[in-house]
Amino acid sequence: MTLNQQSLPTSMTVVDIIEPGGPEKLRLIDKPLPRVSAGYLLVKVEAAGVNRPDIFQRKGSYPPPADASPIMGLEIAGTIVAKADDVDEWQIGDKICGLVAGGGYAEYCLVHKNIALPLGSLSFIEGAAIPENLFTVWANVFQIGKLKKDETVLIHGGTSGIGSVAIMLAKAFGAKVLTTVGSEEKVDAAKRLGADCIINYKKGDFVEATLNYTSSLGVDMVVDIIGGDYVAKNYQVAAKFGRIIQIGMMKGNPKELNMMPLMVKRLTHTGSTMRSRTIEEKALIAQELKEQVWDLLLNGKMKPIINKVYRLSQVKEAHEHMESGDLIGKIVLLNN
């Protein structure tokens, strides 16, 4: 049983993948509206975030979980238009943003009641640019990595979606932040985010720069979305008992890796993915974000960086733009 779904259209426009491949394999088609089951909200999607996992899914290398929508899109913002009878904490008409395991590239999307967050003063575009990176950073850097006030953290890719959120959160909770970027434009962007030490890796070695900045002590934590040959270098820059938090592997697995520094320094190297986590796990993250982070966003003390906004009908161009280079900030798809 659901409230209000009978007054809605029976079909919606969604982005479909014709077959695995490039952006040209994307098209708009009509599909039936999803049915609302217990614990869920049906949201009219106003905006959806574009993430690198969407690119991998389009190419056929990142299939959705078995119980998730096959439609791309991991984060949305919009208005609740229907809800299950067991949902009391949300009302039809509420504006929310939320993390989803799929289904965001569509006119309507299901969001679990415990993973939705109130939009408040945020715009739909801002709301759609937040959940995936915020949930990922909070779970990895704070729940798993336990970053503390006055610790030092090196964040790779500081102007990426993950990196920018990691810098803002780390600074908000009193850590000292070093970050790597690949251009002077990104150096300026990282300064605006509040990073204490910014390393242009195209002009110098980040290992040397990090050890110089920390007086050869190294950093308490490394947040890495790069992988590849960065892994061994992360071991070099980590302090004794340091934590390496692996959030991405843009350069793939390391071809060779000397594990001795990990053993000698007694390092912890960990990481996780978000999409395959259970509703209960994601709900716990959402609750902690409401309690400890959400006011920072609603009060404007943290603000997502928006790179470019496209219409849903321009999804091919949005994917081409994401694949064109290492971008500053988020790409968002707008539904109206």
Automatic annotation (TrEMBL):
Domain Enoyl reductase (ER): 21-333
Listed Pfam families: ADH_N (PF08240), ADH_zinc_N (PF00107)
The name this protein goes by in its record: NAD(P)H-quinone oxidoreductase
UniProt signal peptide: none
Classification via PANTHER family: OS02G0805600 PROTEIN (PTHR48106:SF8), QUINONE OXIDOREDUCTASE PIG3-RELATED (PTHR48106)
Top-level taxonomic group: Bacteria
Record has NADP as a keyword: yes
Glycosyltransferase found in the keyword field: no
GO molecular function: NADPH binding; oxidoreductase activity, acting on NAD(P)H
Keywords linked to the UniProt accession: NADP, Oxidoreductase
Gene3D superfamilies per the UniProt record, alphabetical: Medium-chain alcohol dehydrogenases, catalytic domain, NAD(P)-binding Rossmann-like Domain
